[in-house]
Amino acid sequence: MTSRLIFAFAALSLTACHDHTGIGDIDPERCPSYVNTTPGSSPVMPILGCGAVVTRYTAEIAVRGSLAYTTTWGRRQAPGNQINVWDVSGDKPALIDTVTVGGNVTTTGDVAVSDDGRWLVVPTEYCDGSLALFDLANPRHPVPGARYSTSETSYGVHTAEVGRVNGKLYSFLSADPGASGCTGTAQSRMLIVDLSNPASPQTVFSKQVGSPFVHDSFVRDGILFLALWNNGVEIWDLGGGGHGGTPSAPIVLGGVRTVNGDAHNIWWFHDPSAVANGNRYAFVGEEGPGAFGTNSSGDIHVLDVSDLTQAREVAIYHVDGAGTHNFSVDEPRGILYAAYYNAGIRAIDVRGDLGTCTAAQQTVVASATLCDLRKMGREMAVGLNSGSMPVYVWGVQYLADAVYASDMLNGIWKLRAVSR
Length: 420
Description:
Helices cover about 0% and strands about 45% of the residues. The chain is an all-beta fold. A six-stranded mixed sheet has the order 20-21-22-23-28-27, with no helix packed on it. Strands 1-11-10-9-8 form a five-stranded antiparallel sheet, with no helix packed on it. Strands 2-7-6-5-4 form a five-stranded antiparallel sheet, with no helix packed on it.
């Protein structure tokens, strides 16, 4: 049984300014120095263009139509308090606007666009954490809207997914449990926020979850998947699971602890080519230990969620010397694109049966015997992995035969997608 928690909140005006030139952030010579040749057996994804950002670390990316929105993280020459807007209609991304988020903001790491294209949703960290909304009536130039904060976001909001349940728009906030130098108290929480009136967001549900935190979420068809780090993945019915759950009173359907823990992100795959059981698999990213800018670790874990109450891990994908971060899936073609930090991008064939394989195609991880997607020949292509220039790819998004990547060290890349 769940409980509803009600507490005070403030919808604040977002202090922001615009820089339409981006002067100081762009190094026109940085991207052309990358040599797109990758040793190995997999084909190389061709690079179409790049927009370089050098004063801040680039974080997440969201692409809609001919525009891309990238956020910033931490501190480089300047803090990660900016959102960049790019025209990606051509091969080379062109910076057309920059919004600086005011207040005690050092990271605007996550970013999402509502399904109607009207709102840009950006969580902020660390102290005085919040959810910042931007009006996209003119999508080339976001206008600050409400800035939502509560006592439960005081240490920061790490991720904020956005989606509809029964026609109503919600945001799903992963609230940080603590941060150095912040005042007040907070716990790792999943907050469900009603955005049906974007000028006045309302929390409809809050629950302490995660070990030691909840990192990310994925919502689809009234089902919410939570990445709970060392507690693995939990699945909630918000209205699509047949158990009577709602956004204000979710029902926990089940969960699974993924091998090695560190459950970071999720994508529930809907395969339109499947004759039956096309919603069978969910992919979980493991973010293991690493050194920023140079190395990383962590695998892709494949869950069979045919029965949402009895999820089980059936397969894994591993890259030596690198770890995954975020995903995007070209569902009609059945291709998963994974950001792999210092190893660039991997394109993986995820169509068909991923949980059945020969003994030669299996691998043992922490005493679990799993199908190995690499041994099954599922790797289709690689991108940004030549080693001619360091990259550290945070996020990827597939759209209209292109793949867009946010590279923490270099900015935004546009690559040609894989075809079948």
